[in-house]
Each structure stands twice: as structure tokens, then as C-alpha cells.
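Aim 2 progress update. The chain analyzed this quarter is reproduced below.
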Amino acid sequence: MTFKTTIQDKVSNLWMHHLPIPTELNAEIQTKKLKRIICAIDSREPFAAGLMGGKTKGYYIVINKERFKKFSLQIGQQVTVEIKADESKYGIPMPDVFQAFLDQDPDFDKLFHDLTPGKQRTLLYLVVKMKSEQKQIEKTTVIATHLKKMHGKIDYKILNQDFKDYNAIMRNG
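Predicted C-alpha cells:
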């Protein structure tokens, strides 16, 4: 579905800029049961996103700070948005490095697939945003170790510390 909308400022203290979806599309969104989508703004590079809000409050798509800058967007700017259902397994691309770890480590594979889809997406995002393959390997190593150490649970505070500790070890040899 394609529509025009105006980029709005923060929804709350938590969310950055967003794209309100016209209320006349609520019924179509409900019928198609859209939650995870592929979104393109003014025919730019499509990206995976989630629909936020709901039919009573209205739906919207969050634009993170990085994408907002990359696309040179402005609050109040009118844009054409195209969305379609994201039919991928995880709602985000599976990095080759991460898949290789899953294939080689059945314990890690089980722990990862026992997580909720949202937690799986979060972990994949932490890896996919790394540009170099070496950084992806390092992130995946820490994630696999963390899941095993925490018996399949994620504590993001501890995970962040695990990343810092790993980086310190790598720097200091």
C-alpha cells in the first residue's frame, strides 16, 4: 500500500521521528494483519520496520536517528511511503556469520530459537549493523557466550558489559 504522510516529531520520550499512517488505511492494516513491514520512503532503500500504535490510536512507523539523517529527512516534510508485509522469517536479514554460528553450534541454535521473535530480531540487529565481517563474528561470539552463560535468557545490561569486556580483552591481548 502507498500513501502520503508528513514526518512528525517524537511520539513520546522513547520514540524518535515517525510517519503517521492515514486512518483510512486502518481497516486494510487490520485485514492484512500487518505488524512487521518493509517500508520505503520516497522510493529510497527499503527497510524492515514494525507498525506501532493501533486502530484506536492510529498506526505509525518509527524512523531512527541514523535513517533520518541518511535519508536527509526533515520534520514536517511530506513524503510518499510504500509498505508491504515483511514475510521474512526474522523480520530482519540473517547475517551469514550468525547463520554459520547457528549451523555449527546446536546449543546456541536451540537457545536462540527459544527466544521470542522480538529478542531474536534485536540480537540479529546487533550483528547486522556491523559493517565488517570480523565485527560481526565478534558480536556473534559474545551473543552465543551470553546466551549459554545466562541459560537462554538475555540481560541486556550484562550483555552490554560482555561486549565491553570482550573488546577490552581484544585490545589488551
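The mean pLDDT is 91. The first strand starts at residue 2 and ends at 6. These observations will guide the mutagenesis experiments scheduled for the next reporting period.
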